[in-house]
Each structure stands twice: as structure tokens, then as C-alpha cells.
Design goal:
The chain is built from 13 helices and 13 strands. The protein is of the alpha/beta class. The strands form 3 sheets. A 7-stranded mixed beta sheet has the order 1-9-8-5-4-2-3, sandwiched between helices. The protein has a 3-stranded antiparallel beta sheet with strand order 7-6-11, with no helix packed on it. The chain has a 3-stranded antiparallel beta sheet with strand order 10-12-13. Strand 6 and strand 7 form a beta hairpin. Helix 4 crosses helix 8. The longest helix is centred in the C-terminal third of the chain and has 19 residues. The protein binds pyridoxal-5'-phosphate (PLP).
């Protein structure tokens, strides 16, 4: 009988329809304008969005690409990473980070994360060999890693830094934005990202003119302005229609980030002090970090039981990456053991965190979590 009682509230993990529903007429106006101009590939909306992104980040070049994974591969390629080169990355990431390294012929070397769920600095040091060429910090969950320490390792060992900034547009460390620390960085505009479009999209940013030139040509088949092709490229352009949509959303980006930080603060207030859950660093915990809360990832005792209980109460949650750190994909050839990451992944759970989530939703989610452990 109890099973048939409808939950008091429905809080989906992510409301994909909500992306459009809430701003239907504005979005249709943006799209209609592009469609009426027939402006589909490498048009002014893309150039405008790239300029906005570069200005926002304070970088010289922002180059729209088809998705962040391509962007990472293009950036690694432009950095000269290739066959036999080892690139260190945190295993708690999307397989895309490693996939991009593999794609250019490099060897992805997964390392541990720390209590903030970001790359662990001492593990980087332990994993450096004479084949290591680069570090790929992943600015995960909307937070930027401790880049001072990473920068100092890279300086000492002569390693390049290519940031996977897919989840962290606008996040800062000591006032400096994610994506601006290394030679180049890639961002994702996948729909569920903080800045998302209606399909796939990404961008690479860099201050280096040669890297930028490499990526601008290689995203478009290696074609140069004069028509000559002197290197192999691919087709990885950011659609102009998506760029126009992104430009529209980007104009409201500060409000978006503020709202997410507000929700994170609510979670933090409600759940602090409850022993069964470990919270991510709160929005105002440290002067050094400004987090944009792409995700709100907790660690929870009896995680699977909690997830089921929340689901039965209408609350959607997700275990990031399907519950696997990258090195746990043994069929890809990884043989590392990363106990900290493995334990963390077995306890990690992401709570609803997006613009469709109301304050009351957060209070409901927190009340249910407390109810679960109280029982
Ligand atoms: C989303 C994501 C990617 C991949 O981005 P796409 O645009 O889907 O290629 C890479 N790394 C991380 C950490 C991500 O979250």
C-alpha cells in the first residue's frame, strides 16, 4: 500500500525540457534570426560568441569547436603531445579526458583525487616518469584545483598544462579563472553544463598565437585562409546556431552562477553537521576558491540505499561517470590501483543542482536525506 503513495514532491536530477520551456520565446527569436539569415557554419554569431568568451576569461583566443573532447585533443595536438607521451590526469573524471589523450597517441596516466574530489597534487609528483610531457588537471564540479602547486610541479619538471575545464566556466582560483592557467584549456557546452546549448558544443582557449592558429585550422580540415592545406585536420566546428544560443545564455551567466551558489549554500546550511554525509567545500569556505557548482557532489554512507530512498521520494540523483573512475575501465588497459578514488567513487552522489531546482526543492531533498539517516 505504502508504495502507491505519490511522493510529496518531484525533483528530477536535470530537467532537459526546462532548458527551453522557461525561455521559449527568447530562444526561438535567437534561432529564427539565425535561420532567416541562413547562417549555419563559421558565421558571425560564432565569432561574436568567441569574442565574448575570450573577453570574459581574459584570454587572447577562444575557438569554438564541436565539443570539449575534440577541443582537448586539438589542444594536446597543438601542444605537440603525441605517440609515447604520458599525460597525467585525475581518474575521477569523464573518460573523455583520457580519450582525448589516447586520440593524439599519448598515454593517459590516471592519478588520485583529494578530499575536494580534484586532482591530488602529491599523486602527480609520484607518477612523473621520463616520458611525462603534460598534466591535465580537471576542474571538476565547477571548482578549480590548487593551481599554484600544479604550476610549480609543471615548472620544476618542464611539463605542459592542458586544463580540462569542461565543468568550470567562471570558476576561479586566487582570482584567476579556470582555463587560463596552462598552455590551453577546453570547455564543454553539453546541455547539462552550466553554460549549455541544445546539442554538442565546446571551445578551446589559449593565449598562445601558434596554438590558436593550429586549432583554428585543424578544426576546419586543416584549411588555411588562402585555401592551402599543409597539415591534417578534422571537422570540429561549433555550429553557428548553437553559438547564437550560447551567446544568449552567456549574457545571463552571472545570474546563473549566482543562483547555483545560492543553492549550494542552502545544501551546505541544511546538511552541515550530519555525520553520514561529507559535503563538498561550501561556496564561502575559502577566499582562494570561487566555485560555480556545476555539480553538488556529496559522499554518503550507504550511498546506494540513500539513492534508492531518494528515488522513492521523487528525487533524482546521479552517481557521476556511472560509478567508475577512469582507471577502473580495465579493458582500456589501465592497471593502476587508486584506493582513495575507488572508495570515494563508491560513496559519491550528485544531488539536483540546476536552474530548475527551487529553494523548496533543496529543503525537501535535505529533509529526506536527514530522514533516511535518522531512521
Ligand atoms: C562534459 C565533460 C567532458 C566532455 O565534454 P563534451 O563537450 O561532451 O565532449 C570532458 N571532461 C569533463 C570533466 C566533462 O564533464
Amino acid at each position: 500500500m505504502e508504495d502507491t503513495v505519490a511522493p510529496a514532491r518531484q525533483v528530477p536530477f536535470f530537467d532537459y525540457q526546462g532548458l527551453f520551456r522557461t525561455q521559449r520565446s527568447e530562444i526561438l527569436a535567437v534561432m529564427t534570426d539565425v535561420l532567416e539569415r541562413g547562417a549555419y557554419i563559421l558565421q558571425k554569431d560564432l565569432a561574436e560568441f568567441e569574442a565574448k568568451l575570450a573577453t570574459y576569461l581574459g584570454v587572447k583566443h577562444a575557438i569554438g569547436v564541436a565539443n570539449c573532447t575534440d577541443g582537448l585533443a586539438l589542444a594536446l595536438d597543438a601542444a605537440g603531445i603525441g605517440h609515447g607521451d604520458e599525460v597525467i590526469f585525475p581518474s575521477h573524471t569523464f573518460v573523455a579526458s583520457a580519450g582525448a589523450i589516447h586520440e593524439v597517441g599519448g598515454t593517459p596516466v590516471p592519478v588520485e583525487c583529494g578530499s575536494d574530489h580534484l586532482i591530488d597534487v602529491s599523486s602527480i609528483e609520484d607518477s612523473i616518469t621520463n616520458r611525462t610531457r603534460a598534466i591535465m588537471p580537471v576542474q571538476l564540479n565547477g571548482r578549480t584545483a590548487n593551481m599554484d602547486a600544479i604550476q610549480s610541479i609543471s615548472d620544476r619538471h618542464g611539463l605542459k598544462i592542458i586544463e580540462d575545464a569542461a565543468q568550470s566556466l567562471g570558476s576561479t582560483y586566487k582570482g584567476k579563472k579556470a582555463g587560463t592557467f596552462g598552455l590551453a584549456a577546453a570547455f564543454s557546452f553539453y546541455p547539462a553544463k552550466v553554460l549549455g546549448c541544445f546539442g554538442d558544443g565546446g571551445a578551446v582557449v589559449t593565449d598562445d598565437d601558434d596554438v590558436a592558429e593550429h586549432i583554428v585550422t585543424c578544426r576546419d580540415h586543416g584549411r588555411r585562409k588562402d585555401g592551402n592545406v599543409d597539415r591534417w585536420g578534422r571537422n570540429s566546428r561549433l555550429d553557428n546556431l548553437q553559438a547564437a544560443v550560447l551567446s544568449y545564455f552567456f549574457d545571463h551567466y552571472d545570474t546563473t552562477v549566482k543562483r547555483r551558489r545560492h543553492l549550494a549554500n542552502l545544501y551546505d546550511e541544511q546538511l552541515t553537521g550530519h555525520e553520514s554525509v561529507v559535503l563538498p567545500p561550501g561556496p564561502n569556505q575559502s577566499e582562494d576558491h570561487f566555485d560555480i557548482f556545476q555539480n553538488y557532489e556529496i559522499e554518503a554512507d550507504d550511498r546506494d540505499g540513500l539513492q534508492t530512498f531518494l528515488r522513492d521520494n521523487g528525487i533524482g540523483t546521479i552517481v557521476q561517470w556511472g560509478g567508475y573512475a577512469v582507471h577502473q575501465f580495465r579493458d582500456l588497459g589501465f592497471d593502476q590501483n587508486l584506493p582513495y578514488t575507488e572508495r570515494m567513487i563508491s560513496r559519491a552522489l550528485m544531488l539536483p543542482m540546476n536552474l530548475s531546482v527551487t529553494d523548496e526543492d533543496v529543503l525537501y531533498v535535505c529533509a529526506k536525506i536527514i530522514e533516511y539517516y535518522g531512521a
